[in-house]
Amino acid sequence: QSMDSTLHYIHNDSDLSTNSSFSPEEERKSKVQDVVPQDLLDQYLSMTDPSRAQTVDTEIAKHCAYSLPGVALTLGRQNWHCLKDTYETLASDMQWKVRRTLAFSIHELAVILGDQLTAGDLVPVFNGFLKDLDEVRIGVLKHLHDFLKLLHVDKRREYLYQLQEFLVTDNSRNWRFRAELAEQLILLLDLYSARDIYDYLRPIAFSLCADKVSSVRWISYKLVSEMVKKLFMASTPTFVVDLMNELVEKFCRCHKWSGRQTFVFICQ
């Protein structure tokens, strides 16, 4: 009986209103496709209706967010217009769990949509997640390399200025956040030029090498060693020479034994 009443509610609820400037008829046409039965898609899109969350399931928006990449893959890139409004609604949902779910899958959605749609529709959402709660930011951080490698070189360089912000967390004891940053920076070395690595990634790496938590420092030693290799292979030798001189000055000649030990570990 309970299920029947729920199904009756779902089938009779056709309020799919949005803040769009389109008329209801134009709005309906913008979400028409021929891959799956239209009624099925309409019911999926209605999951973001606030009244649905109050009367059917408080977790329904989270389930909708979790399934969205699969729905996008099924409908195909050509039908993204059917999902765009729903995605933006979920990305600004009041529940951080909903935004977190999208943050963990935004790199998968970028692969499905391709570079043009990603640049136009996903990058603004990605930028919003970067300034969100740590529970949401960790989602984009864990797949930072996967997302940035899909962007155009010029667009990718814009994020160099924001990488430093990952060193700041809501809770300073959240060391796993910094450890994940070090892991991602190792992967990001392949995406940037020698000058960008020296100017932007090097200061972050040195900061992580002096972290209070040993697990973060260990990953950072690997990061610095990979940085040396990358700069050594570059056409301009001055970057690697300057980096190694800085390593000697900061760590090898450090008055603290821990600093000198850091130098040994990096060499190892």
From TrEMBL:
Region (Disordered): 10-33
GO cellular component entries: cytoplasm
Isomerase listed as a keyword: no
Record-level Gene Ontology MF annotations: protein phosphatase regulator activity
Keyword list, A-Z: Repeat
InterPro entries with a match to the protein in the record: ARM-like, ARM-type_fold, PP2A_Regulatory_Subunit_A
Domain of life: Eukaryota
Alphabetized PANTHER family for the sequence: SERINE/THREONINE-PROTEIN PHOSPHATASE PP2A 65 KDA REGULATORY SUBUNIT, SERINE_THREONINE-PROTEIN PHOSPHATASE 4 REGULATORY SUBUNIT 1
Name used for this protein in its record: PP4R1 phosphatase
Organism lineage: Eukaryota, Metazoa, Chordata, Craniata, Vertebrata
